[in-house]
Design goal:
It is a single chain. This protein has 330 residues and is mainly alpha-helical. The two termini are 32 Å apart.
């Protein structure tokens, strides 16, 4: 395995740069207010475009594979939350905000782009991955706030009704409007997916910059010690390993095909940074959002590195089989 495959992706490097800039030059006063409004608009547009990109035909076709989707949703919204709650209950040595961030990570939906990309690399069921990841993100708009409130009700982190309303107004309504307009603007958005991807990532970088800038002014780097970071890395690595092993074991017991197994492993083991960061700024308003999203940012890179290795392993297993088949038919 080449070391280049373990190199952080460009988006992760950009997030690290945003954290560094926020640590040195945090936004303050009128600049912070203006920038915050700009980011709010960008996030609404981001979810509008997510709604407009999803083809209704793809949704209908993929929904028919209900067993696959149930397994992915169970991993995303049942297994992950239970493991995260167990970590919060039994792992000492981390601040309450970081533990809340691990629980929040556990209730987030799956990723879209990377789940589909890795399923494609591994030669899995791409159509099912598209629908599963999209369905997970759509349901996450409803389930993530609810599960966050239930899981953190005794932690002092209160999810208010105003936060739920803000989620609906800023995230759900733009998504639904995008879906309504999808027949007219969906093809254009899909054709320009690369350009719009920069906008997608830019809005997340803006949120990260604002969150960390606010936290730096409040003394973030005096509160997170090197030992805390090491412990957090170990906990998140263990969480990812357990989920990957559990999903792969479950699909083999349930008798899914190799292609469906790949889609389930790739979609059921990830958490969305694109959905998680904007939601956190709303759900945890009044709390130290930078500490809450820190586990998510670290887990994001871990899942990319792990799934890159796994996808290449699946692809390498498939090539000899194809060669053998070609030899027999020739």
């Amino acid at each position: 395995m080449s070391l280049a495959r373990l190199r952080p992706d460009n988006f992760t490097l950009a997030i690290a740069a945003a954290v560094v800039i926020a640590s040195v030059l945090p936004a303050q006063g009128a600049v912070e207010t203006i920038f915050s409004h700009m980011v709010d608009v960008a996030i609404a547009l981001l979810f509008f475009m997510h709604g407009a990109k999803i083809s209704r035909d793809a949704v209908v076709a993929g929904l028919l594979h209900w067993r696959l989707h149930l397994v992915i949703l169970a991993s995303t919204f049942v297994l992950f939350p239970l493991l995260a709650i167990a970590i919060r209950a039994f792992v000492p040595g981390l601040p309450d905000e970081l533990l809340a961030g691990i629980v929040y990570l556990g209730v987030l939906p799956s990723t879209v782009q990377s789940s589909i990309a890795f399923t494609s690399i591994a030669r899995g069921n791409i159509a099912a991955a598209v629908v599963a990841a999209s369905l997970s993100n759509f349901l996450g708009i409803f389930l993530t706030p609810i599960l966050t409130g239930v899981a953190l009700q005794t932690s002092g982190v209160v999810i208010s009704e105003n936060a739920i309303v803000a989620i609906v107004v800023q995230l759900l309504l733009p998504f639904l409007v995008g879906q309504l307009l999808q027949p007219w603007i969906g093809p254009w958005i899909r054709r320009n997916a690369k350009v719009l991807g920069y906008f997608d990532r830019g809005s997340i970088l803006g949120v990260v910059y604002l969150a960390f800038g606010h936290a730096v002014l409040g003394g973030l780097w005096h509160r997170v010690t090197p030992s805390m970071l090491v412990l957090l890395l170990a906990v998140l690595a263990a969480l990812l390993a357990v989920v990957l092993a559990s999903t792969r074991g479950a699909v083999r017991v349930l008798g899914f095909s190799r292609e469906d197994e790949i889609a389930i492993v790739m979609c059921g083991s990830k958490k969305s940074l694109a959905s998680g960061v904007p939601m956190a700024t709303i759900l945890f308003a009044g709390h130290d959002v930078s500490l809450v999203i820190l586990p998510l940012m670290i887990f994001h890179q871990m899942q990319l590195m792990a799934c890159a290795v796994i996808a290449q392993h699946y692809a390498a297993q498939e090539r000899p089989a194809e060669g053998a088949t070609a030899g027999r038919t020739g």
